[in-house]
Amino acid sequence: MDTTTASETIISSVRESWVALITLGPAALALNVALSVLAVAIAIALGVLARRLLRQGARAVPRPADAEKTIRTRRVATLAWNVVEVALVLAALVTLAGIWGFDVLGWLSVGLGQQIVEAAIRIAILAVATFAAVELASLLINRLLQRMAHSREGQVRRTAQLNTIGPLLHGVAKGVIIIVGGMMILAEVGVAIGPLLAGAGVVGLAVGFGAQTLVKDFLTGIFLVAEDIVAVGDVVDINGASGVVEQMTMRTIRLRGLDGTLHVLPYGEAQVIHNMTKTFSYHVAELGISYESDIDKAFEVMAQVVEEMRADPAFADKILEPLEIMDVLSLADSGVVLRGRIKTEPGAQWGVGRAFNRRIKPAWDAAGIDIPYPHMHLVLPRGGVGGGEPPRAAANG
């Protein structure tokens, strides 16, 4: 059936329904109104019943411990309710049209109506398939990342890297699937997607030339993750901005400073990255002692303090090796500066360093090791007080 015949059929059907409607008697009109109200009431009651059943079913299902699974379950339940709601609305409309004399099902079974129904069914199937493909891709990516994490269990670094690359994979997969599904739906509607693809290619080429910085940022971020240079949870310094890597998007890296400041840096500006928590860390202790103190005894006490910390359950897993003695750093004005280094797990160097400084002071005091500090000696004249030169003060660091 061509368009002209289909249009004439629709107009004729509407005209016949209108004529039948205006010729109804009071009793028939009242009956149609009563049936319409009853049909709407039944549709509403079925909707309420369906919503309660879905809620009870969702409560009966054990709640997953994984937050991602919980979100996915809610999305599926929402989709199911939307499908039921649309079905009830369509059924109510068809029933109301039948009550008032318009045969919707008969019109949809032949000619243009049949074509519209078939196209609508195909579009609905494509939409549901696109939604299912997005959820399936998300599930597969999560399963893959979990398997990789379990295969490298105990490696915190690997887990942080997977947490970094996970959102990137989800975003790319979701974008590709939605674009392909949208193109297929447009093709079903009758839109020629060939010119759209050609235009998208031209626009993409123009954007590529005009947005080289964005492309550079994106590619730099991919290589940073692929080469395991930085990951979420690392403490880094980039262009003078330091902090914990809180998030890595497709274009920027976000650092949370010690004072809570959020530093947002494009990957293109991350030319030099100082990663302070990759694989392992060091606390470098540079401490001064007086010139009268025994240097060897000071180093011995430092090593004993580190061994006591390694025996402490609070630091046993954080300190990886004994103290590395790096000898005398310098002979300063006020004393001798000693240097030692403590190897720790990534990110533990600051806490270990503070605890070491707290313990070394009483340990050196007990061993007779003096820590230099500014003080002043008063030198009296040779002739004693009351004669000769006046007293003079000598400051010692």
Walk me through the structure.
- The protein is of the alpha+beta class and 397 residues long.
- 60% of the residues lie in helices and 15% in strands.
- It contains 10 helices and 10 strands.
- The strands form 3 sheets. A 5-stranded antiparallel β-sheet has the order 4-3-2-1-5.
- A hairpin with a 2-residue loop joins strand 1 and strand 2 (241-248).
- The mean pLDDT is 77.
Q: What's this entry about, in short?
A:
By secondary structure, the chain is of the alpha+beta class. It is 60% helix and 15% strand.
Radius of gyration: 39 Å
Q: What composes the largest sheet?
A: 5 strands, antiparallel
What is the strand arrangement across the widest sheet? 4-3-2-1-5
Our count of helices gives 10
Low-confidence stretches: none
N-to-C SSE string, H for helix and E for strand: HHHHHHHHEEEEEEHEEHEE
Overall average pLDDT: 77
* Strand percentage: 15-25%
